[in-house]
Amino acid sequence: MVQNQSPSQSQSQGPSPSRRPKGRAVPEGKSPASTRGTYAVGDERRLRILDAAVEHFAQWGFHASSLARIAKDVGITQGGLLHHFRSKEDLLVSVLRRSEEHDVDRYFAVEVHSATEFFAALVELAEYNSRRPGRTKMFNVLLAEAGDPGHPAHAFFVKRYAELVELTSDAIHQAVATGELKPGTDGVALAQEFAAVMDGIQLQWALDPQGVDMGARLRTYLDRLLRSITSSGAGLPAGPA
Fold it and tell me: How far apart are CA 142 and CA 158, in angstroms?
């Protein structure tokens, strides 16, 4: 069995109404109810900043994006934005971590019992990515920029790919151990190949969303891959009609 969890799940994006640290003092002269309302407003504003930053990073990349323009889109001052995020680098990392944690919670926080189930979840993720173009295009832009070791997202993407390869190769190796996949299947090599194929399809989709069906292309690839490595020759289960 494979428990699909990433270390990035433990990196909090700051307190939310349901995850505020215990024991936070209530400011003098304010009731607990009014304090909760203040925190809620702050959390809502923080999320609006993150959403606006996604669109800016997708359109202009990191270096050409402006905190002042992001703040203006949210309806606050740049100083108000810096109250929530210390710098543009801090904002960038928070955007990436929030997106990564969301994906992990949505698709990989539950236990799967086979490589087939794991690959089916990857197809669902690709289909979901095609329905959120801002975030997906942002990922492509920042990934290209982050090849520079001095880029603030460089360490994030290095860590992300290492975790993705580890997660996928673990699923493959355990499926070999259960007999689902053929003996000798190289989990690390296939995991690296998969990451390259998924990102390549995603890039083609970003260039031509109408001409490239990201989910369907990935499904076809993974189905063909599974048929070549499963002991029974089975591929992915049929998708929705």
Answer: 12
Six token digits for residue 114: 């086979």
Nearest to 225 by CA among 111, 122, 108: 122
Give the model confidence (pLDDT) of 47-104 as tens digits.
999 999 999 998 888 989 999 999 999 999 999 999 999 999 999 999 998 888 888 7
Return d(Cα 145, Cα 143) in angstroms, integer. Answer: 5
Tokens linked to 47: 């999320």
Q: Helix, strand, or coil here: 104?
A: helix
Instruction: Say what the pTM is.
Output: 0.73
Provide the H-helix boundaries in the chain. Answer: 32-60, 67-74, 78-84, 88-103, 115-129, 133-145, 154-178, 187-207, 214-229
Supply 155's token pair: 């360490």
